[in-house]
Amino acid sequence: MRNSRVFFLLALLIAVAAIAWYISSHRTSAGEVTVYYSKVDGQSEIPWTISARAQQPGESAAAYAQYLALYAASQAVAGPPSDVTAIRFPAGTQVLSVTVDGTTATVNLSPEVHHPGDGALNESGEFKALIWTMTARPGIDAVAVRVAGSKVATLNGGSFELDEPLRRSDW
Amino acid sequence: MNRYAVRIGSALALALSFQLGQFATASAAENPYGYDGKRVVFETLVQRSGGPAVSADDPGLHQLVRNAGGSVTWDADNQYVLVTFPGPTVISFAIGDAHYLIGSVSHPAAFAPFVRDGHAFIPLNDVLRALKLPAYSTAAADAAPATSTPLPGPVSTADVAPAPTTPPFATPMPSPQPDQLAQVTGVDVQVQPGSVTIRIGITGNGAYEWHRLRAPDNRWWIDVHTARLATAPIDQNGGALVSAVRVRQQPADTVRVALSLPASEQVDVAPGNDGITIVVSNRIVAAATRGSGTFGSIATANASPLASPAASPGARYVPSNPRLIVLDPGHGGSDPGAVRGSLQEKMVTLDIAKRVRDLLVDRGWQVVMTRTDDRDVFAANDSAHDELQARDDVANSRGARLLVSVHVNSYVNSGPHGVATYYYKAGDLALAQALSRRIASELGINNNGVIKDKLYVVNHAVMPAALVETAYISNPDDFALLQSGSWRQRMAQAIADGIVDFTESN
Ligand SMILES: [Zn+2]
After folding, report:
1. Is B155 inside a domain boundary?
2. What CATH number does residue B357 fall under?
3. Do both B470 and B333 map to the same domain?
């Protein structure tokens, strides 16, 4: 009798913990995105979480995922608050569109991203932040980069290769 | 002719070649495949008893794999099809082997891939499963007309054409009599520290042929011809160096012994009187992707080196010109690179590279530079792709030992400073480390070390390659160093020493 009460309480505790975990894990993915920025050492990626709007009534899960992907890409390109030291995309660079096809997100950047004379540290750090951010989205493991809608081998005068989808393992 | 027309034309040519070869194809309209709201048309589907087969050249297959970020390669010389993703993840199918690999993990295939009219056919549903996509069937094809065939897949012309007189795997030549066949009697696997010895017991004389797939696949197999497997199929474990040893009777009187290797270990093949001995050792010095020979009282062996460096970028690189170093001074001509005041990156890189060249030539090396004056290597105001590829072409076309590209770094503020050495491919790392060690010890500059980065010129060099960002033009102290001829000479000396160190230990 005593044993069964202990067992019941234990089961109740596990159930409450499971529900709490479920709610917390689903709440964070609903209204937040994780964005990464590259430290100036060129080696470390720092995640930070920003809130995003919640899914609207009548908005499909796919449309909401699309919104979150665009939002995350835009935040990665905008970079962290200005008091944070980070490798940043050239001023004025914008995300024109994001499409997700299978496990690959295609991020279309505005031509301001071309910034001749940038060295490997800058180029690599910019795209590392973007790729880390996008591949933190569920189901995305690669990011194809376009500039003004076109595929490019590298940025103008740059060295970093952009013509194939990028993955975290490229770094 | 526009690109679209070419594509349709080549698809039609492909379909036609199958028809001419008495080969079963379905018309494109019959077999759309729908997934994730997209549609793909396979133009070369053939129904096998295990399921649909698709040509490795099929435009629909290429589209599907490309959508997933990958590519399909049919290596006719080595008889395998690779579906490669930049991860790197490789799905590999070997002709005649009813297993396929995802990475180094073996999976049973719906049927053994086969070749018809020069085209390799692989099990479509195994590819889809590996891509985590739904299986192909007429039911899944939303616009496909109903068919009466009970098999999944479209009605193929083979279903209405006269039945072929030979099964798909029929031996084209008359089979030798059983008493003319060698007998594979068994396999003995001995695991020692650092090596594994596999003895294939064979009675009789005959020929063999071995193949290895390029890294990161690393599968290796040997086909013993005109032979019968005298035992049941064998599956053995070969310890850490050989994750599996499989022995199977293949069609056409061939016994295949296949090894799953976790890395590109060296594999030595020694034929003898009573069979073939294979030694797998953990030295990574494999130079050949195939070889052949004879066993028994007529034993001989030879291994063929790589046909060309570009044919096998993941495998161990063998320079056709081992005394040749290619140096690439970054930028040039219409592209100044980073600029500060009157100092242009393109002039600094050219000066340092020339100094490295002179030091290496003094030590007996042949050196080719991608440019020796202030010019674009491809053409003025060309695309980055053309310009960088032209630099790789200088090294690739000459079979050089290695490529080193020299640059100057730049940042939006004056904070970052020092040198960094970049690599990308696994084969680049030792070169980058050798350069970085010498730079650190000889220059005393802030050394940011060795960094993996997908730099075009490094990635597209088939040989070991590295890019040295010598200093930051944006940092005042580094800027002063870059302007100093004596510092550029010391940097050149360190690069030359690093190159020589690399060649001595690799
Ligand atoms: Zn440069």
Report:
1. no
2. 3.40.630.40
3. yes
In a domain, B418, yes or no: yes
B165 assigned to some structural domain: no
Strand order in the sheet with B119-123: B46-48, B51-55, B119-123, B114-116
Range of the domain at B349: 305-505
With 0.80 as the threshold, say if the pTM is over it.
no
Tell me which chain B residue has its CA closest to the CA of residue A117. B338
Q: Give the Å distance between the CA of B321 and the centre of ligand 1.
A: 27
User: For B482, how many CA atoms within 13 A lie in the half-sphere containing its CB?
Assistant: 32
Interval B189-205: pLDDT, tens: 888 777 788 889 998 88
Q: Is B417 found in the same domain as B366?
A: yes
Rounded to 10°, the helix B3-20/B59-67 angle is 130
Question: Per the CB < 8 Å rule, is A42 touching B339?
Answer: no
* CB contact B335 to A (< 8 Å): yes
- Considering the domain boundaries, does residue B501 fall inside one? yes
Least confident of B2-6, B159-163, B391-395: B159-163
CA–centroid distance, residue B463 to ligand 1 (Å): 20
Q: How far is the CA of A158 from the centre of ligand 1 (A)?
A: 7
Q: Which two tokens stand for residue B382?
A: 């060309």
Cα separation, B301 vs B290, in Å, equals 11
Q: How many of the other CB atoms lie within 10 Å of CB of B380?
A: 10
Residue B483 tokens, joined: 């302007």
CA of B498 to the centre of ligand 1 (A): 20
Residue B319 phi, psi dihedral angles, 5° rounding: -70, 140
pLDDT of residue B289: 64
| Nearest chain A CA: its distance from B339 CA (Å) | 7
B211 and B241 belong to one structural domain:
yes
Of the residues B249, B269, B297, which one is the last residue of a structural domain? B297
- Contact residues for A157 (Cβ-Cβ < 8 A; gap 6+): A114, A116, A117, A118, B331, B335, B337, B384
Number of domains in chain B: 3
Minimum distance, in Å, between the CA of residue A52 and any CA atom of chain B: 26
Chain B CA closest to residue A62 = B36
Biggest alpha carbon–alpha carbon distance for chain A: 78
d(CA B221, CA A36): 44
Q: Does B420 touch chain A (CB under 8 A)?
A: yes
- The alpha helices in chain A, defined as continuous H runs, are 2-31, 61-78, 120-135
From B267, B297, B327, the end of a domain falls on: B297
Chain A residue whose CA is closest to B346: A117
As a whole number of angstroms, the distance between CA B117 and CA B119 comes to 6
- Between B235 and B138, the more confident residue is B235
B401/B438 same-domain check: yes
B358 and B467 share one domain: yes
Name every residue whose Cβ is closer than 8 Å to that of residue B167 and which is 6 or more positions away in sequence.
none
* CA–centroid distance, residue B145 to ligand 1 (Å): 57
Q: What is the DSSP letter of A40?
A: T
Asked if B146 has any chain A CB less than 8 Å from its own CB, the reply is no
Q: Which of B68, B452, B453 sits opposite A160 (nearest CB)?
A: B453
Which range of B40-49, B380-389, B407-416 scores highest in mean pLDDT? It is B407-416
Is the minimum CB–CB distance between B447 and chain A shorter than 8 Å? no
